[in-house]
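Materials and Methods. Structural model of Putative Inosine-5'-monophosphate dehydrogenase 1b-like 14. The 398-residue sequence of Putative Inosine-5'-monophosphate dehydrogenase 1b-like 14 from Homarus americanus was retrieved and submitted for structure prediction as follows.
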Amino acid sequence: MFIKDDSRTKKAKTTQIFADAMLEATDEVRARAGKPDTIRRDIRRVRRGCRPKEPSSLAELHLDEEWTETGGNNPRPFLIHDSGADTNDRVIIFATEASLRLLSRSSQWHMDGTFAMSPKIFKQVYVIRVLLALLPGKTQSIYEELLQAVITQCEHLGCYPDPSTIITDFEQTTIKAVSSVFGEHTTVQGCFYHLTQSTWRKIQDLGLVPLYKSNENVKKFCGMLDGLALLPLDDVIAGMEYLKENTPDGLKELVDYFDATYTSSNPPANPNNPLPPVRLRHRPPVFPPAVWNVFESTITRGDRTNNICEGWNNSFRPLIGHQHPSIWTVIEAFRNDQALAATTMLQDQIGERPQKRVRRAQKTFEERLIYKTGILSTFGIRGWDFVRWDFVHWDFVL
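The predicted structure was written out as tokens:
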């Protein structure tokens, strides 16, 4: 058996190396091989011996040439940016030339971070789909360095990225960094799925889950809050006011949270109050409607969510194997992910990329949603009527 050699040279999982060795072994060798757990532990020990020492800090991390390339039989440059061991906030970015050229041509970028799969010395693995980064934090300056480094590397290739839309999660530092680097002509769109999840978490925090599950009107109303994202942008405030005037018992705190976070509409007048209304200082929402409104994206059949990044997270997780792995495990997973992405890009170029399967129910849902939002655009139905006529709630029950 050549288990030790395979452990040093193959990128397969430990169990796969062991199984391949047993497949080639004789019965006598199999009988004397020892316990499988012991063999797998030995394979991992050999692999650790082939890797550099695990750094305990960003300053200790040194990337030899081997770890700056894609690997394989035809290694290519992969590391495009490293702010250096002497910096407090070290940013490392991996991408190939082909990926940068593809990103430069794209009018829409998808960005997201994951914390569980990050090595311990970094805060998060960050993806701008087709390139990968290791970030030490989540401050605006770190995101600005990431974006500016990507732009600089693209310009070195004679490419000039200028995305019209960037879809990301609801993180103020990310949104501010995008606006700072690209300017106001690039629209930052919050992921609609993250909006619905934020509402659901607040429902849980407020202890409203039993009421939500037992009362259909409450469930419908919660879906209508998220459904405000489907109104024309100019009608969102009116839609919010309508919901505030028709809030079911027990949901006022939820509505106040949503209003302060996403709309901050003026409080509706009370016709039974003889006193003149108190003029309150208007406070802008944390995330204004322009960030999370998806009306235009829906009627133009664009993306409302960042699911492309969520899908990447799901496919990347098996390459890592467990939370907070070794830095070297992460870079090897980056290489494997890049190889898969390169395969997809090549297949796409020759017209052989398999079509993504869409479930019939999802396709029907999309068509009905486009039809209903199209009614607003075509016939000029006001946003509050759109909400009141139940055009929204049925789709977004959490």
